[in-house]
Amino acid sequence: MRKLVSLLLTAALAVMFVLPGAALAQKVIKLHHLNKDDPFDNSTGAMAQVFKSLVEAGTNGKVKVQTFPNSQLGKDNEVLQQVKDNVIQSGIFSVGGFAAMYPPIGVLDIPFAFPNISATYAVLDGPFGQKLSADITKKTGFKVLGFGDSGGFFAFSNSKKPIKTPDDLKGLKIRTMGLETHKRMVSALGGQPVAIAWAEVYTALQTGVADGQMNPIPIIAFAKFDEVQKYLTLSEHIFAPYVWVMNPEFYKSLTPQEMDVVNYAAKSAIVAGRGLARVIEASDRGLPALAKKMEVYALTAEEKAKFREVAVPAVKAYIKEALGPEGEQLMNDFLTAIAESEKAGK
User: Fold this and answer.
1) Is the domain of 235 the same as that of 253?
2) What's the pLDDT tens digit per position in 317-337?
3) 260 is a domain residue
4) Which DSSP symbol is given to 196?
5) What is the pTM of this model?
6) What's the rounded Cα separation, in Å, for the pair 117 and 339?
7) Distance (Å, rounded) from C-alpha 282 to C-alpha 305?
8) Cys staple from 106: which of 64, 135, 181, 207, with CB 3.0 to 4.6 Å?
9) CATH code of the domain containing 177
10) Cα dist. 296→156, 157, 232, 305 in Å?
């Protein structure tokens, strides 16, 4: 019995002295994202869980990933500061939240800029995406891990009438993220932009504080807007990516092998998020489900051209006014990258 007690005490002391050192040696990435942690429910959930799995496996557990879903740490603009201060190490942010720290992200809001969804991948993963990442790092200090898919192209929904022409938007109160580029676009089309926090959008649509809103199909579906909106227009007018960043000092604290794992894990996670968004769009959790309760209309190429004629000049003028020559150059680089990707795809 004495031998057994002695062995147990020795083992306990060993744990007391070894575990703290192991705990100190272990690196933890606290990761903020906007939605549920379920990888089959939404894009950020898929991104977070794939990233966690690949990082922890690829580093043999030396780097752990702790996720904070559903914006539990605060609004995007608040959490950005937490990442900057290394309170948390990484976050997947909406462009609306990210614009608070990096206004030039607004150049991505040129309406009807992308010809199709695959062009968004080519542009944001290619030379333009690299240039944008470098500019974000230069102006904010963040390490950019990539640009995710928030659910695809935006669609308009509302409770009043079908939207087939710019005139149909006249007088409608349309909820926006609060981005000035989005406000200018809605105003140019004759609508009345209303900035409402995400947590309050469903109630605002239900009570008539807003007549409509604009978001990708998966977001409209999981937010259950079909319960409070009658009409859905597949306008495909904006693609608003997620911006995924990491605290630069934490990133530099990783070994070269750990950096490599984090980089490829983020890229793989972004691909997973894109794939899930496309699956949800096409499944009974996306457009087919919405079509059971809502009147769905897809704009023709000719109808999109009419929207484009009105909306694009207003947004371009704002970007030139607000961001100056540097912002205008970034906008032109963005549009050139899209044109080049379109040529390469033909």
Assistant:
1) no
2) 999 999 999 999 999 999 999
3) yes
4) -
5) 0.89
6) 14
7) 25
8) 181
9) 3.40.190.170
10) 10, 9, 5, 19
Look at residue 345 and tell me if it is in a domain.
no
Q: What is the pLDDT of residues 146-187, one digit of tens each?
A: 999 999 999 999 999 999 999 999 999 999 988 999 999 999
106, part of any domain: yes
Residue at 179 is within a domain = yes
In a shared domain, residues 36 and 53: yes
The DSSP result for 198-259, as a single string, is GGGHHHHHHHTS-SEEEEEHHHHHHTTGGGT--EEEE-------EEEEE-HHHHHHS-HHHH
Look up tokens 């040129």; give the residue: 110
Domain containing residue 169: 154-239+294-317
Residue 317: both structure tokens together: 């003028």
Both 303 and 159 in one domain: the answer is yes
- Tell me 162's DSSP state: -
Output the CA–CA distances (angstroms, integers) from residue 327 to 106, 243, 322, in the order listed.
Answer: 9, 18, 8
Task: List the structure tokens of 91.
Answer: 């976050």
Both tokens of residue 276?
């899930």
Q: What is the length of the chain?
A: 346
Rounded distance between C-alpha atoms, residue 276 and residue 278, angstroms: 5
pLDDT grade for 24, boundaries at 50, 70 and 90: very low
DSSP string, 84-153: HTTSSSEEEE-HHHHTTT-GGGGGGG-TT--SSHHHHHHHHHSHHHHHHHHHHHHHH-PEEEEEE-SSSS
Query: Could you give the number of structural domains in the chain?
Result: 2
Residue type, 272: A
The helix/strand/coil state of 346 is coil
Q: Is 112 exposed, middle or buried (0-12, 13-18, 19+ CB in 10 A)?
A: buried
Domain shared by 235 and 212, yes or no: yes
Closest CA to 114 of 152, 163, 140: 152
Q: Tell me, yes or no, whether 257 and 271 share the same domain.
A: yes
* C-alpha dihedral (342, 134, 67, 176), degrees to nearest 10: -60
